[in-house]
Amino acid sequence: MVFAKEQRLVLKNYGKIDPASLEEYLAAGGYAALKKALAMNPDQIIGEVKRSGLRGRGGASFPTGLKWSFTAPLQAVQKYIVCNADEGEPGTYKDRLIMEHDPHLLVEAMTIAGYAVGATKGYIYIRGEYPQSQASLARAIENARAAGLMGENILDSGFDFDLEIRSGGFAFVCGEETAIIESIEGKRGEPRVRPPYPGVSGLWGQPTVVNNVETLANIPGILNRGGEWFARIGAAKYPGTKILTLSGDVANKAFVEAPTDTTLAEVINDFGGGVAGGKFQAVQVGGNSGGILPEALLNIPIDFDSLLAAGGSLGTGSVFVMNDTRDLAEAVKTMMRFFAHESCGKCTPCREGCRRLADFMVKLCAGNATAKDYQTAAGLAQVMNQTALCGLGQAAPTPFQTAMRFFGDRLETRLAK
Amino acid sequence: MEMVTVNIDGRKVEVPKGTTILDAAGKAGIKIPTLCYHPDQTVKANCRVCIVQVEGVELLQAACATAVAEGMAVRTNTTAVREARKTILELILAHHPQDCLTCIRNQNCELQTLAREYNIRDIRFEHVDDRIPLDLTSPGVHRDANKCIKCGRCIEVCERVQTASVYTKHDRGFDVTVSPVFNLGLGEVACINCGQCILACPVGAIYENDQHNDVWEAINDPEQHVVCQMAPAIRVSLAEEFGLNPGELAMGKIVAALRQIGFDKVMHTNFTADLTILEEGNELLQRIQNGGKLPMITSCSPGWIKFCEHFYPDFLDNLSTCKSPQQMFGALVKTYYAEKAGVDPARIYSVSFMPCTAKKFECTLPEMRSSGYQDVDAVLTTRELARMIREAGIDIARIEPEGFDPPMGMYTGAGVIFGATGGVMEAALRTVYEAVTGENLQDINFTAVRGMEGIKEATVDLAGLEVKVAVAHTTGNARKLLDAIRSGEKFYHFIEIMGCPGGCIGGGGQPIGTNNAQREKRIAAIYKEDIGMPLRKSHENPAIIQIYEEFLGQPLGHKSHELLHTHYTERSPYPFDETEDVR
Amino acid sequence: MMENSFISPAKRSVDEIIARFQGVKGGLLPALHGIDAEYRAIPEQALVKLAQAFDIPVSQVYGAATFYAKFAVGKRGRNIIRFCESAPCHIAGAAELIAAMEKHLGVKIGETTGDGKFTLELTQCVGACHSAPVFTINEQPYFDVTADMIPDILARF
């Protein structure tokens, strides 16, 4: 399906080069950004990234240049770059696409990031469910090392950098930046109390920058073509492109890289080929932690701020469509059970609350929930938003809360008479 | 020090930069409720009970984990905050057995107190019963994991302070459980029975093996001659069980209460503490003079002994062969005392009141039967003693004081200070110094070995010989000291190790609410008592002189070896040994 | 660690696997992954060996090993079949596929076949939502599977 608005910037090499071949990556212009970066000052690089307006693509949307600027000036025995490739949000596989089809893009980006913040060591934490991605990156790192693009004194710049791959163990919570750090340290992946933030005290107490795969994958392009070029693409406050992965009841269950001022309607209808198997009922954007949105909101652009203002969340950019034959309450039940399964168990509101919300949805779908149960669940959801220790617990009630807000009747009819 | 001014609930308070909201509020006279927070531990911020509203911040913040900033405005008690706290408490209560009335921590439980303070009248979540079987495998410490609120305080004290590391969280989410590996019982892993986890636990998930009903049974049996001893730590801390300050309860009142409860004889472990000094002091001199194994390490703390057996078995030969004062007492009660009192030892039921849970394990050891019977039949903690006093309806504050029974009820200040870290060392030095130099120790207050610092060192000039001594409390500090000795970094002649923080006064059997501040108060009470004693050196105790003359003969003599000395057992640090490879 | 998930005929021993990661910072988890790749489970004895090799309490090893849903302390079958139960697969018909698999193998989710060949588990989204419903065998995904394809797929093991 040809989608006029698609702009393959991050995915420019997808399907065009053999991902196992360093030569083909080089021939396609690869590692030019690294060469350019090594001739610049780290300050200049961070300045360019700030100018680009790039914001995190893992869900939190924190400005990348700003994040790097916290760590760059710090003096430390060792600083680290961690790539968060623990892509666990259901419906999301954008990072897998990058890792399997253009692994050198990530390797190059991390090396640039290391240089910019003063980190000589990087870890790529890849979820355990992605063995191909792990193999693909391992091969790329080996090839880069052999070619002098990784290791000591890269390209005679005096900059040393090396990468290690770590595998996740099927724990969604390890996508949280301090949980990923705990996991790399060989412990249970439980999020830490913050402050201190990882940028100041992360891996083994050292300053650590944690970035998502897609965020990093934008860096070489920004270095090559300039921050201002990037800032002109898409939405003003959330520029660039976003890889969206479609699933559910769409004709074209595929992925697209679109500028951030594309609307949801364009994504679902123009790219996705429209709703399949029935009429449009709802769309969940951003994975399980994202809001379930009604037809009325389809004309919203997909940038982070617009979706947030509408009561949703761009999150990881997964777009999960449900037609009107789907039992919405059942879908919400599945989502709440996901969180009950994935809660790390450290803090009370999430450990106990995720399970209680899942139990409530089971009760609701079975027709046994009372109005009091419903009220209690709604109150619990709000307490979780406000008091959970990390983003998992804070966002877990979102599917339920947006279902209440936009599809309340569909839930209320299931209450016990 | 940089100060900042913050506004909490409308009150302005000035505090050092970096102070937490919790502490700043405390300074402003505002109490923020907590549950997983403990003043002697790291901040965990997992219960989320202490959450407060910081102006300008959308999400509620944990007061224990958030530092104040200049000009910060905090509201600790908005409607949203109260709603959140109630919900959090209900969530915990819905996953917690609701048997408060029959729980060992009834009226002494942090969760119960919060439920009352927040007026929880309705738990809106369905009750879930985990149905985890009780862990009764250790004779000292029992567990009911169903009551666990996953605060992690037990894990921290066991891992960081004691470094026995028997507890872990396992699995995750709603099913996360705190237990030893493979869900084994404490008696099946390298638990040292110190009971620090009991003191750390805010609820009734960990508790002592309460045996006071066994003692009632013995007292009610007319055939049994029930005798008791009590540790020096008891007197300073029993007061706290009755709302008094450490040391405020006169010893004589406790003796009177025990008689009223029905004990036939009430005697004191301090007697055998003095005895221990005679035996151990001579043992030390012998080792120094005859090239015996050094450093010699004290052996009166069974938590420390088990720690040594599991983790440092290469030091077993360094341990003094002396039994603990409790066990010396037990052996003598059914021999020396039985003879003198004309009582058939088979009828004697020997009870020991201790601040300690490890001694419940110690008294069951096969080597603790020198009298021909189990030398100590039952060990009861300070908490169990308080239970007996309450059950007997005794008004301990007003009862008329009474004296101890001979022949094992007389003691010196040296015996008293056994209860505090550094006390055994000081008591030993008071005697050994005089024995070697023939002179009185100039100042018998050996302050260099006193206090809450983890490892204390000193050098004593014994007639030209520079004797290097060290004192450690908590097995975590024992580990540090022993590692330094193993590596050759340090050398000592004599080391005192107490398993618990602060020494026995900080033991696992002490009143709930034991923390380091309370330990310091108890230590002060111990040394105050020592100063008030007419005799302060073990070798001056006439009852000790008497027992050697009429029964034991010489220190380290044949009879001593039979009754007062023991041996140790190497144990594995792992629940099972695995040297075979797996293919 | 980036090994193919098929077990090589010369099985590496637990000691050999641990030796590779001893001295690696945070090496406990890579070691657990290595043992899991070889044995499809973490043998209990391995926990003690890991504690010794990394000089940490065995309780910490156990706490880490039980946190991650990938690992199972104890025994499992030689091949782990995992069905995604997240929403996109759920609405695409995961339940029917699971039922077909359970029927074919004669065991339910959470159980291992009598011959020790297969263990059935549930898992969360594996990022293959374009081809829902999805299951994996030893972490390798199978796309666009229908019930009638199951016997042929399993015959390869």
Structure description:
- The complex is a heterotrimer of chains A (417), B (583) and C (157).
- Chain A has 417 residues and is an alpha/beta fold.
- In chain A, 43% of the residues lie in helices and 12% in strands.
- Chain A has three domains: 22-231, NADH-ubiquinone oxidoreductase 51kDa subunit (Rossmann fold), CATH 3.40.50; 241-323, Ubiquitin-like (UB roll) (Roll), CATH 3.10.20; 328-412, de novo design (two linked rop proteins) (Up-down Bundle).
- In chain A, a hairpin with a 6-residue loop joins strand 7 and strand 8 (292-293).
- In chain A, 62% of the residues are buried.
- Chain B is of the alpha/beta class and 583 residues long.
- Chain B has three domains: 3-77, Ubiquitin-like (UB roll) (Roll), CATH 3.10.20.740; 92-208, Alpha-Beta Plaits, CATH 3.30.70; 212-564, Fe-only Hydrogenase (Larger Subunit), Chain L, domain 3, CATH 3.40.950.
- Chain B has helices spanning 21-27, 79-94, 110-117, 153-161, 196-200, 212-220, 232-241, 251-261, 269-290, 302-311, 325-341, 358-362, 382-391, 413-416, 423-437, 475-486, 516-531, 542-552, 558-564; strands spanning 3-8, 11-16, 51-54, 61-62, 73-75, 141-143, 168-170, 177-179, 206-208, 225-230, 265-266, 296-297, 348-354, 378-381, 455-462, 465-473, 494-498.
- In chain B, strands 2-1-5-3-4 form a five-stranded mixed β-sheet, sandwiched between helices. In chain B, strands 11-10-13-14 form a four-stranded parallel β-sheet, sandwiched between helices.
- In chain B, a hairpin with a 6-residue loop joins strand 7 (168-170) and strand 8.
- In chain C, a hairpin with a 2-residue loop joins strand 3 (135-137) and strand 4.
- Chain C has helices at residues 14-21, 28-39, 44-54, 58-67, 87-91, 94-105, 150-155; strands spanning 79-84, 118-123, 135-137, 140-142.
- Chains in contact: A-B, A-C, B-C.
- At the A-C interface, helix 7, strand 3, strand 5, strand 9 and helix 14 of A face helix 2, helix 4 and helix 5 of C.
